[in-house]
Amino acid sequence: MQPYELLVGLRYTRAQRRNHFISFISIASMAGITIGVMALIVVLSVMNGFQKELRARILGVAAHVQITGFDGRLSGWEQVARQARDNPNVVAAAPYVVAQGLLAKDQSVQGAMVRGIVPQLEDEVADIGKHMKRGKLSDLRPGEFGMILGSELAHGVGARVGEKVVLITPQGQVTPAGILPRIKQFTVVGIFEVGMYEYDAGLALVDLQDAQKLYRLGDDVSGVRLRLQDLFYAPEVGRELTRTLPGDLYITDWTRSHANFFRAVQIEKNVMFIILTLIVGVAAFNLVSTLVMAVTDKQADIAILRTLGATPLSIMKIFVVQGALIGVAGTLIGVVLGVLTALNVDVVVPFIERIFHVQFLAKDVYYISELPSDLQWRDVATVAAVSLILSLLATIYPSWRASRVNPAEALRYE
Q1: What is the pTM of this model?
Q2: Are 171 and 297 contained in the same domain?
Q3: Which DSSP string corresponds to 238-257?
Q4: In terms of domains, do 241 and 333 share one?
Q5: Residue 270 and residue 224 share a domain
Q6: Number of C-alpha atoms within 13 angstroms, CB side, residue 370?
Q7: Which has the closest alpha carbon to 225: 64, 405, 4, 85?
Q8: How far is CA 153 from the centre of its chain?
């Protein structure tokens, strides 16, 4: 590109136009691009934050990798855990017993998933201990038949710490009166709240040995839960363990057990990206209108440049520079504002809530009561690239129109 083409293009952008409407459309186009880019960056960051927060909450209770027997029972769990720990990506292993049951207190009855754990080992593979509202995991001791309930489950049953609840198991026992369900009284020793309704309303923790006795498993367990150094290696670790562990074992990981949930979040993020990209597209369409009117307004200037020896390609480059400058300026301002807003969502949102006396995520309705944000520079680069490409594409037709101006026709009435 020749220097004069760049200089003329920059001068046209800075010059005070006779037609103020063109200047207004130029500013509106730049503002549209700015708002679109800013909105895209902020929304993608918030979606990333939601995905990260939900993943952390789910994996605070669920296992990265889970090893079970095909019949729901696993013998010799110590050996399985020891061999699994030989994998360099596995940092912790803990046995568990899982079964269904009914919790009853007075007239209240709630279904629950009962999980037997070893408190010291469970703390290494899950984060439930960090979300205890009352008591602690170590309060579960063998033979004392203590129980830790999710907050919603405790509320549904009407149980507080120190009170008794009755656990009714589906495994029956034969009596002269027929087959009766097994019933055992437990003492509530703690309450947890991880922020996921599935767990807060349906999970009850007991000591592993108490669960083995209650469900008549002997020394067997339901399986072994593993925690990894990097949770994103879970599928690869699962495949490696399938090859190295002996026996008929069923190995699954969090990407399979919660695949639909995380896939839905990713699809929603992609859809939001497409929808908000349309804002940038509309702003680029305004850029086309701006340049078309600028070409009409500058026909005499174009004709003079042509008579002085400028080629059609040079004229085209001048208006490409003018349009590209608007797109670049709008994109840069949008990126700066978007990044600043995404990094300060925890400050901006409460400020807006105080000003307008609203609450976007009520604590009594949503488990995530604050908008999380996770700014990823890859998303910023993608948004900026899309905006610049759309802006450059928008300059092609008006610039081509400018290069087709006939000098004689343009100067006839000047």
Answers
A1: 0.71
A2: no
A3: HHHHHHHS-SSEEEEEHHHH
A4: no
A5: no
A6: 11
A7: 64
A8: 27
